[in-house]
Amino acid sequence: MPWDDGGNPIPGINRPLELFRTIFAQDNDSREKLDASLKKRQSILDIVRSNGGVMKRTLSKSDQEKLEEYFQGVRQIEQGIQRQAQWADIPKPAAPFGTPDEAIFGEDEIKLMYDMIIAALQTDSTRVVTYRQPVTSVLTSMGIQLKAHSLSHYGFSIPRTEASRQRDKKCSELFGHFLDRLKEAKDMDGSRLFDNCIVSYGTNLRSGHELKGLPAILSGGGAKDIKHGRHIVLPQKETPLANYWLTLMQQAGLPILAFSHSTGVLRELLS
């Protein structure tokens, strides 16, 4: 879900235990191993760059462009190595709970991920979070054996329609739980974390494979110019979703005038 300035995807963290270790783990004994691993990876990238530079002079223009795209990926890896080294030197905050069970899944996994997102925000480990809430494991934990994909193509199937409604209700309850936890949590200055956050909850599909008319739920008190408690249907049917993100990023204080294929901010959201 997250992308860098060059349009390259940034890999995410898939499991609660991995996220827990990233945020809280203090493993000083492995620092030498980490340094050696980073140095080895850096040396491999140096060789790739050196050999690629020699090769580039013998290639056609189109092949040079393809090679440059490859080098862009190499540069992204180098930046990732630098960030990993910098992160290793940052003292980790104390964990508010014990090490999670690696086998946790479904509703419990989602609630745990939400708790760790809150802990990461409280400790200023990050200020931006994207989270793709699992669906298949939630269905399994609810005793529903249907696949998640089939629920977006339920047609006239009564079992699929009912399962889709149960899933939507459960996902809404879990999101509501997250908002409640944000309201309970304190930010570093003692204020409610909820009042300092912009929270967007949505989907990449409306129904089937339809990419138009996507719904979004907006919450949190961090966007001071946005009036909440309303259901808005945008009057312009072809409004890019990028306009929504541009509006939220400006409300978050980013000095940008455009985002992706945006055509402007959503005036309907602003008070």
What's the quick description here?
The protein is 45% helix and 3% strand. It has 271 residues and is mostly helical. A two-stranded antiparallel sheet has the order 1-2.
Tally of helical segments: 7
The coarse overall form would be globular
The level of helicity is 40-55%
Unreliably modeled segments: none
Arithmetic mean of pLDDT: 81
Describe the overall structure.
There is one protein chain. The protein has helices spanning 16-24, 31-56, 61-88, 107-122, 136-141, 158-184, 241-251, and strands at 199-202, 216-219. The protein is built from seven helices and two strands; from the N terminus they run ααααααββα. The protein is globular, with a radius of gyration of 22 Å. Helix content is 45%, strand content 3%. The longest helix has 28 residues, at 61-88. The protein has a two-stranded antiparallel sheet. It has 271 residues and is an all-alpha fold. Among the domains are: 95-207, no CATH class; 223-271, no CATH class.
